[in-house]
Amino acid sequence: MSVPIQPLAVSAFTATSALGHGLESHVAALAASRGGLRPNDFSSAPLACWIGRVDGVEEASLPAAHAVWECRNNRLAWLGLHQDHFLERALDARQRYGAARVALVLATSTASMGATEEAYRRLDAQGHMPPDLRRPLIHSPHSLAGFVAEALGLEGPCLTVSTACSSSAKVFANAERLIRLGLVDAAVVGGVDTLCDSVLFGFNALELVSPEPCRPFDQGRGGISVGEAAGFALLERIDAAPRALRLLGYGESSDAHHMSTPHPEGLGAELALRDALDRAGLRADQVDYINLHGTASRKNDEVEAALIARTFPASTRASSTKGFTGHTLGAAGILEAVFALLAIQHGLVPGSLGCTTPDAACGPQLALENERRQIDVALSNSFGFGGNNACLAFGRAPA
Amino acid sequence: MNTLPVFVEGIGLWSTALGDFAALQALEKGDAVTPPSAKPPATFLPANERRRAPESVLLAIEVAGQAVAMSERSASELPCVFSSAYGDQLISDYMCATLARAPAELSPTRFHNSVHNAPAGYWTMATGCHATSSAICAGPASFGASLLEAATLSQAEQRPVLLVCSDIAGSGPVGEVSGSRTSFGCALVLAPEQGLRSLGKLVLTLEPHAGLALHPGPPTGAWHEANPTAASAWPLLQNLAHGEGHCTLAAAATLALRVSLEKVA
To answer: Which residues of A touch B255 (CB under 8 A)?
Structure first.
């Protein structure tokens, strides 16, 4: 059993996805059950599928001072940092604690891979990258965190976590450990992943992409819709922001089963869930809402549905928001953590967009339509290739 | 606090010149060293996985297996942190070349092996490890940052932790920008408390605002300069071979990690 942790304040957070730029557009879209998926209009040879594309990334070029980091993923990071005054909040933390006392832990699955793909499409006659893309920094998986560290002027521990689709949930755990040991006083966490050919054609090659908008947990679901997103959160000790929403716990585990399919009994997912509840000092019946991983792939949803059905009472509400945004891969953990935080803040259980006839494995917890109720504790599940699992627990400050 | 103690219980190492930590110790003493087999044996992997696994996975599993065997810990119980500055550079080259030419022909197996946590995934499957596993990087500071991360995990959770740092040689246009021209991996089992298997005590101290001190010196032509992980890990590995010493590693662009290796009683 894991040792309970001291809660941390989530003193600022933000998200940018196919639903729009910043929190307001996300709340509005969830409340109106208005999804952000569109027919695929990305890439040189578009596959017939639906995607969760962020508007305005192409126009959000980096300032000249950061031009060496220019690429689509860092543009989305820059766009995301400017929503909900997140950039100012992060700079304020740097001012209060000092640049070396704020950690930066970011997650991505593809980093700037889109720029590397473009370089390969435009190789010169000798097979070298074109001069404008011959920038080693953007062909490294650390490109995102390297850019954001420079943009925010942070000088503390700086790390990229890349465990596929659990990545940006795990960053909360890295940050909590650094703060608990006193190595830093605050941490900027988050994740950014952008659409690129690697993921669209990669998931297509695995036959995991749905030809229609994804339908998590529906009996007729036919695979995922790939999306893109940027999300960030600022974590501090609770005395710095006593009224802020809180990170109560987290859980991490490995399936030890298969590279790309989940453990059939959900063993790893359950271990991560138990770990999160133990660290938060919570019982299952105290959980009001769970933002499920719910990708709309046949096997993943079935395993997760069974886990929720056997673990939680009917009063716990659960839903997948991937029907709204698509599966944003390395950014899914932070995006869905933000949905869990918004659920607490607004008393809103978002419905599972796209699900009309739930899989037989689903219990009464699955919310098909929006529900309004008080939410004090919310979990967010994230599972990735390689059998990598994470679960986050959030709550409000005690009254 | 900006200082972390952690105890080394196992050390793994593989390069084209040195097959394990004993070979490095022999080299440092001036003894002749026989180069290892061309391919990391990775005996922790079941035979069928070993045949199919990419080089990046074989390398990481080989050094992980060495370190865990030396520690006499149970691999299934160890949380693990896998670090690589560039991930699987051969698959990146293959994927970008295929996507530029015939995207619909992308291999599904190579795609799922392209994730940065593929070595962690294969390792946890091979050892039945259900503890947390991670896959991280930090550019040129990947080795120092992941040593800090593994020590942090070990101290915060009060558990021994496996750290694996590896990078294979690059190829194609992507290989030109990574500057990795040879394969190298190393691994450490780190424990929060001194125990019977402790080989030495590492004291990690964060030294911020150290930008200029972290610039690499002029190249000397040493073999370990041909791999980013080897170049960063080399000072600490030499100290481990000697049993004591101090070194400074980059943990981020301007964050230095002072690493003192002390003998244990």
So the answer is: 100, 155-158
Distances (CA, A) of B98 to A166, B74, B105: 27, 41, 7
Pairing between β-strand A38-39 and β-strand A50-52 as defined by DSSP bridges:
antiparallel
Please tell me which of the candidates A146, A177, A388 has its beta carbon nearest to residue B152: A177
**Model ipTM?**
0.97
Q: Is B153 on the interface with A (CB under 8 A)?
A: yes
Query: A242-280: string of b/e by CB count within 10 Å (b at 16+)?
Result: eebbbbbbbbbbbbbbbbbbbbeebbbbbbbbbbbbbbb
Residues of A known to be catalytic: 165, 293, 327
> What's the CA gap between A279 and A297, in Å, rounded?
30
| DSSP 8-state symbol, B140 | B
Contact yes or no for B86/A136 (Cβ under 8 A): no
Interface touch A136/B129, C-beta < 8 Å: no
Residue B131, token pair as written in the block: 């503890």
Query: What DSSP state is assigned to residue A318?
Result: E
Backbone angles phi, psi at A169, to 5 degrees: -85, -40
User: Over the stretch A142-182, which tens digit does the pLDDT of each residue have?
Assistant: 999 999 999 999 999 999 999 999 999 999 999 999 999 99
Query: Which candidate, B32, B38, B41, B54, places its Cα nearest to that of B12?
Result: B41
